[in-house]
Amino acid sequence: MMNLSIFLVNHPILLNFAWVEGQTFGSSPFFLIFTIFSYLSLTFLLSHIPFPSISPQFLKAISSLHNFILLILYFIMAIGCTLSSIYHVSHPLLLICFPPQTPPIGPLFFWAYIFYLSKILELLDTLLIILSRSYQRLTFLHLYHHSMVLIMSYLWLSTSQSLISIGIVVNAIVHIIMYGYYFLCSIGIKPKWKKLVTNCQILQFVFALVVSGWMLYEHFGRSSSLGGCSGMKSWCFSIVFVASLLALFIDFHSKSYVMHANTNKNNKTL
After folding, report:
1. ∠ CA 96-102-104 to the nearest 5 degrees?
2. How many domains does the chain have?
């Protein structure tokens, strides 16, 4: 544990980290807007422009590498953020409610920054979908999720939003499961727990709503005399986004698993 904390918590790079708008890479609003605009524009153009077919073996190799990198990144992120919360948060309640004007500095916000950058790296998921010509996977849910989560993770940093440490660890665990599944698929192993990936995502959104209730209790209750919790405007955006994802994923779950199961049942009956 001590060796891990040296590299994932107490390294000088982490201890001296500071999110400074306009100075830290990717911290300007222009960068955020340009990245999302470029992502959506390129997705539209590449999905409508014919290009030479790419070797399936090459695509599998690139996909495997991409999934493996994200799998390891989220694993390290989950450990790093957890240890940073243990060693650098003076009271457990601060994980729920940061004091107002909390500066985005130190190890915890370093991992929030890595989380933000990971969401940019995840945009390559869409490119791999296009290159494999699996256009049916370019759904509104896919594009909406990738675009809006980038805004949310940016706001987490720029406003020092309360709950981010919990959000990062929970999201990282879900993505470990998800990219673990994708990695196994890309190397030719087809796990039987595809449904688990969607269920974990839905549980993540439900958990976010529940823990947000606790944060609101702190904001309007015990912490109200001190000015409430940090990043409430950002939280408003996040909670609306999470609620919309919950609705979309429940709809996806219903269409992908419940309706499919009912169809198979009816076919067997016939």
Report:
1. 100
2. 1
Q: Give one DSSP letter per residue of 195-231, joined into a string.
A: HHHHHHHHHHHHHHHHHHHHHHHHHHTTTGGGT--TT
CA distances from 246 to 19, 173, 206 (A): 30, 17, 7
Q: Which two tokens stand for residue 201?
A: 């995502």
Q: How far apart are the C-alpha atoms of 186 and 92, rounded to whole Å? A: 40
- Using an 8 Å Cβ cutoff, are 8 and 14 in contact? yes
Residue with tokens 């549980």: 203
> Mind listing the pLDDT tens digit for each residue in 28-54?
999 999 999 999 999 999 998 887 888
Write out the residue range of the structural domain in which residue 122 sits.
2-47+54-269
Amino acid 245 reads L
Q: Which of 77, 79, 63, 83 is nearest to 179 (CA)?
A: 63
Q: In a 3-state reduction of DSSP, which class is residue 250?
A: helix
Kindly report, residue by residue over 83-103, the tens digit of the pLDDT. Answer: 999 998 888 899 999 999 899
Q: How far apart are CA 159 and CA 81, in angstroms?
A: 18
Average predicted confidence (pLDDT) for the chain: 91
48 classed as catalytic = no
Indicate which residue of 11, 88, 145, 146 is catalytic: 145
